[in-house]
Design goal:
Number of strands: 0
Strand content: under 5%
Structural class: mainly alpha
Order of helices and strands: HHHHHHHHHHHHHHHHH
Oligomer: single chain
Largest sheet: none
Number of helices: 17
Shape: elongated
């Protein structure tokens, strides 16, 4: 009658070495079963205590606890909750080699199966934590599924990624990309079926890669010149290209840019012509690189906690907020609409769960 618990004990050294997958129910049952049997055995009812005091058994017990904690942490980060999941991030960081395959599965499953997600669901796996952690760990294998998420149709991309499109995707992509991925990133920049924010995220990723020494300045300047010529009549995107020229001080193109302003091609609410005046002060490449690296919105991801914990949806100790609905009182605030609280964030990233 004691064969089952004995078998469970034999499995203790194996469990922590099993590859984690998204299907954790069986392992959780086994983990808890082994944990329970350990407590029974440790009481001395079935084996004398000295048989369980060996260093190997203690080590296996520790590994089992770590495994169970990591499994729960990986499960918890699949949703954006009221509080930033700092403990979970720290646990995953400490066990990153084991966690990376699961993080990859999260983003791959969404990229591969996005068409199968019901439009009405609010309970989909949120890729935010996984994407930031993969970027922090510099996991190149994440590039393909993440760039595919950025290439989703405009409404779908906005529904899934929200403010991350304009605030974070450039840094995430630059953190996991290599020089061999530049062609794929350019394809997103030049894809006119996407909106200007998706395309600009890809363009800014190239700028960050330049600041990290991955993409030579001369090649980036030439590419920006090509974009200025090809998309001069793209009123939604040309202003962002011009802005990028300013960011890297691409003086080689300032005369052309002044001509674009003269012909009313550039949205002056986005950027003004004064930056490109003939007598505009020259900025050294050293200063350009310094600005890019110090700007929290244009640098590679090195710390998931630093990159995420300031989000409005994670602000703690706020008074409960009831969104002020339109006068009719019947309209529901959409996930992707601006939050009525005035934070500037989308409703789903702010007061949705309050």
């Amino acid at each position: 009658m004691f064969r089952l618990p004995a078998l469970a004990l034999l499995l203790v050294p194996i469990i922590p070495k099993l590859e984690l997958t998204s299907d954790t129910s069986c392992r959780f049952v086994l983990c808890h079963a082994v944990n329970s049997w350990y407590n029974v055995f440790h009481s001395g009812y079935l084996f004398p205590p000295h048989s369980l005091a060996s260093s190997s058994f203690t080590q296996n017990k520790h590994e089992l606890v770590v495994y169970m904690e990591l499994s729960q942490a990986l499960e918890n980060i699949k949703q954006i909750g009221d509080n930033f999941a700092k403990d979970e991030v720290l646990c995953i960081r400490e066990n990153k080699d084991t966690a990376i395959p699961v993080l990859l599965d999260i983003v791959r499953n969404i990229a591969d199966n996005f068409d199968e997600i019901p439009e009405s669901t609010e309970d989909i796996t949120d890729p935010a934590y996984a994407m930031f952690l993969l970027a922090e760990f510099k996991v190149h294998e994440a590039f393909d599924p993440i760039i595919r998420l950025l290439e989703l149709e405009e409404d779908e991309c906005d529904w899934l990624l929200g403010d991350m499109i304009t605030c974070d995707m450039d840094s995430i992509i630059a953190s996991i990309a290599t020089a061999g991925d530049i062609k794929r990133i350019k394809a997103v920049v030049e894809n006119s079926t996407l909106n200007e924010f998706q395309r600009y995220a890809a363009l800014k990723a190239l700028t960050i890669m330049y600041s990290e020494g991955i993409y030579p300045r001369a090649e980036l300047v030439d590419y920006l010149g090509n974009l200025l010529e090809r998309f001069a009549d793209d009123e939604d995107f040309i202003s962002w290209i011009v802005g990028d020229c300013k960011d890297i001080s691409a003086t080689e193109h300032y005369a052309r840019i002044r001509n674009l302003f003269k012909n009313n091609k550039v949205d002056t609410s986005i950027i003004g012509v004064k930056h490109f005046a003939e007598d505009a002060p020259l900025v050294s490449e050293e200063e350009v690189l310094k600005r890019i690296k110090e700007d929290p919105y244009t640098k590679i991801i090195t710390d998931t906690i630093e990159s995420m914990n300031w989000w409005a949806c994670f602000k703690e100790n706020q008074k409960p907020f009831v969104p002020k609905l339109p006068a009719t009182g019947n309209k529901k605030v959409g996930r992707n609409e601006l939050c009525p609280c005035g934070s500037g964030k989308k409703y789903k990233k702010c007061c949705l769960n309050k």
